[in-house]
Each structure stands twice: as C-alpha cells, then as structure tokens.
Design brief:
Structural class: alpha/beta
Number of strands: 21
Strand content: 15-25%
Shape: globular
Helix content: 25-40%
Length: 474
C-alpha cells in the first residue's frame, strides 16, 4: 500500500508531505457501548464520536482482549494476548514478562515515524517510556467541594461521582487533548503516530456541572435488568458479578439513577474532548493523510447481570467502541457487524502503513473488512479475565467457559441482553463445539503481581492526584 499526499495548507503556514499516512490513536477509558452511534443507551449524546464514526468504519461487534485496563491495554499495545503473556489483571506489570515485546508506537518509531502521546494509553504506572519520542502523562483533576464529597447521592461504596464547578480547562483530559491539538498545529518532517488518552468516563465520574445538566435526573432511564438474571449463571459467573457488593450498595442507597446520570455526564465530557482533537485535525494540513482510530479499552456494567464495573465476561464488559477512518480505504457511514477483537488493531495499522508485521502477534489484519464489511469473517472475538476464564463472541453467540469448566451460552439473535443461558441445552451442543475450537491452546501462568497494587491495595481510591511514572523496562 503506497501513500503520497501533498497538502497545501489553506490558512496554514506550512505544508505536509509524506509517503506514509499518519496515525491519530484515541483511547477513551471505560467507555462502553452507550455512545449514540452504538445505541447502548437511548439518551446518550456523543455527537463528536458519532461524526468520527460516520467518516469511516464503525465496528459494532468489537471486543476487548481483557475486561480490565492493564491487561486490555498491554495486549492491544503489544499484540500479545493475556493467555500468551500471563498478564491477566491490573496488578501484573506487563514489561517484565514481555521484555522483548515491541509495542505498537515502538514499532512505528523503529520504522521511521515519530511516536508521541498524552494521557492514559498504557495502564497507570506501567507506561513504557521507551516507546515514545515524547509523552505527557495525565495530571490530577479538581476535587468537588465538601458538600458534594459528603453528599450520599455522590457515592455508593467505592463507586464515586459528583458535580464539579470548574471550567473544562482545569480538567486533565482537556490538557491531554491540548497536547494533541498543539502537536497537530506544528510542522513535522516525519510521519507521526499520535496517541491521545482520554481518562473519563473512568471513575470518579466527577465532571463540570454543564455535563450533568445535559441529563436531568428525573429523565434518566435505567438499564434493563432482569431480577432473576443470575439464576441460571454458574457459581463462577455469580462470583464475578458480586451481586451483594456494588449492586446491593447502589440499590440500598437509592443511587442507581444518580450514578447513571454521572456516567452519561462523563461520556459527554469525554466526547467534547474528542471533538476538540478532531477539529484540530480537520484544521491541520494532515487531515487528508491521517488514519484515525478510536477505541475504548473495555465496556462497563451499570447494573446489568447485577454487576458494576468491568471485570466480567458478559457483553457489557467485553464490548467497546472501535472505529477507523482510513483515507483511500474506508468510505463514509460504513458499519461492520462481524465479531472482531482489539488484538487485530496492531497488525491492521501495520498493513495500512506499509510496516512489516514482524515478531509474534496474536491478531490478524482487518484491512479486508475495512474495504468490504460484508466479506465472510468467521474468527470469534476472544476475551480473557483471569487465567482459564474465557469468552468467545462470534456473529451470533457468546460462549463463556470458566476455570472450573462451567459454561454459559447466549444467542444474541434472540437474547441481546444475555438473559437465558443455553449452555445445558443439547440443541446447542454443535454450536458450543464449533466455538470451543477457538479457545486458546496456551494459557500462560500468571505473571508476577506488583505487591503495591495487588489485593486491597490494588483497589484504587477514586480520588485525584498525580500518578507516579514508572521508567521503561527495556
């Protein structure tokens, strides 16, 4: 694939000339399928993410490699699955067990690109500074005033939210977007890989008041939840759901409606930051020669399956946004309903940018789908949460198998909310057998845990403050 674009800059004072496309790589933390272009919540307003989706390919059945920040991001950024690396949980540093892995931005650097980034791309303290020519880490956010902090309708246990009476410019995500905006406004002699990590809607869902005002409390619609949803789920699944934990606290404190409002408000805030970056790209001389990828690292439950957070193998936790705009390849308003997972992003970008696909990658290129979303594609998406716990999602079914061998099977054609477990129905034995062939042959032993982050210490306090940056482990 050969690229040549000479863009005279209209109102710009310089021109961009490159033989390879640039990449704008936008990650949005904890963003589930509620965005309006995916239709996960009837009231969600995401005009900026929607306009990006309308410019190219929206993958409507895309799934993370793991339903937790660290293993999901480590897998996407290295091209190596949790079952291959042993990095299954947030408390397992990825670089020590993958010392020779070449990360996505590192691979671009090695092939003539400048790789820069801001915000959360890798998880927390496990950033890989050797992957970047320049990098701006996220800063702290303002705290709510004491009245909000002490409001019983601004938290339920460790699920925390609240109104901020501050300007957008005081928020970390605004500053991370500014980094990308400033970079797009400068002249660059080399093609670039520009990553921008937006932290919201990660908790705490504390964003400026105007975003809360977009969703009046009395108009909030709650997720559809069945009271007996866990009755046919095996004990291993119920253990993941923890219905007596977060969900019980939300109900006991009458906070379901408040927390949904806060999550929607946080999505709206994130959407505005994405829009600011897209506006900067459109105004730059790089607009016609830049691939744009937007992804969420995993989904998020807000009561479905009586569960909150990610950390499960059901649709709400594994499905996340993925969209790609590729000049000369994608067409506007394309949608692909084939099941894909985020392991495919690395090899796809390599093919699109004429980079060699060297080393060991667990994914495959999706360029054929970008060209024609209706081609035959029979590769299920695989998600892993903890060693030997896997979910496979194809174009119709989800098959979950836990470490103890217990299973769940859902037919999304008739049961999109996954309310009826069909795993014990003999009529679906052939479906299970076919899907089970895609469970990984290798299940790597658990990577060592960071003792500072494991156990209770790994349950982040949902506050603010700067995060300590770890040096790269080469």
């Amino acid at each position: 694939m050969f690229w040549l674009e000479i863009i005279a800059g209209g109102g710009n004072s310089f021109a961009a000339e490159t033989q390879q496309p640039n990449v704008l790589f936008i990650a949005v933390d904890d963003l589930n399928d509620w965005i309006s272009c995916l239709g996960g919540h009837p009231d969600c307003k995401t005009p900026n993410i929607d306009r990006l989706a309308s410019r190219g390919m929206l993958f409507t059945n895309a799934h993370c490699a793991a339903p937790a920040c660290n293993p999901s991001r480590a897998a996407l950024m290295t091209g190596i699955r949790p079952s291959s690396s042993g990095v299954y949980l947030n408390s397992q540093p990825w670089r020590p067990v993958m010392p020779d892995a070449v990360t996505l931005p590192q691979h671009f650097r090695n092939n003539g690109y400048e790789a820069v980034g801001s915000g959360k791309i890798f998880h927390g303290g496990y950033n890989d500074l050797g992957s970047w020519d320049d990098y701006m880490k996220q800063t702290g956010d303002p705290k709510p005033d004491p009245a909000v902090l002490n409001d019983p309708h601004s938290r339920a246990g460790t699920i925390i939210w609240g109104v901020l009476d501050v300007e957008d410019s005081e928020m970390s995500d605004y500053k991370m977007a500014n980094y990308a905006i400033d970079y797009l406004g400068k002249q660059h002699d080399k093609p670039f890989f520009l990553a921008c990590g937006i932290y919201r809607p990660h908790m705490p869902w504390q964003v400026p008041r105007k975003y809360y005002d977009m969703y009046p409390l009395d108009k909030i619609q709650l997720p559809k939840v069945s009271d007996d949803d866990l009755d046919d789920v095996p004990p291993a699944g119920v253990k993941m759901a923890k219905p007596t934990g977060d969900h019980a606290k939300i109900l006991k404190t009458d906070n379901w409606r408040y927390s949904v409002q806060a999550y929607l408000a946080s999505i709206a805030f994130a959407d505005v930051q994405v829009g600011r970056v897209l506006d900067a790209l459109d105004a730059s001389p790089y607009a016609k020669n830049t691939i744009v990828v937007l992804w969420g690292d995993h989904g998020w439950h807000l009561g479905e399956k009586h569960h909150w957070r990610k950390f499960s193998l059901w649709e709400e936790a594994t499905r996340a946004p993925l969209m790609m705009v590729v000049p000369g390849v994608t067409r506007p308003d394309l949608r692909c309903s084939k099941s894909v997972d985020f392991m495919n992003i690395y090899p796809t970008l390599c093919e699109l940018c004429d980079l060699p696909i060297g080393g060991y990658l667990d994914g495959v290129s999706m360029v054929s789908l970008l060209r024609d979303p209706d081609i035959i594609w029979e590769r299920p998406a695989l998600t892993t949460h903890g060693r030997l716990n896997h979910a496979l999602r194809d174009n119709q079914y989800r098959l979950i198998r836990y470490r103890d061998g217990s299973e769940e099977l859902y037919d999304h054609k008739t049961d999109p909310m996954e309310w009826k477990n069909l795993a014990d129905d003999p009529r679906y034995a052939e479906v299970k057998q076919r899907l089970a062939k895609s469970f990984p042959d290798k299940n790597a032993l658990d990577a060592p845990h960071d003792t500072k982050r494991s156990g209770k210490q790994n349950r982040k306090k949902q506050g603010q403050g700067k995060k300590k940056q770890q040096p790269a482990n080469k």
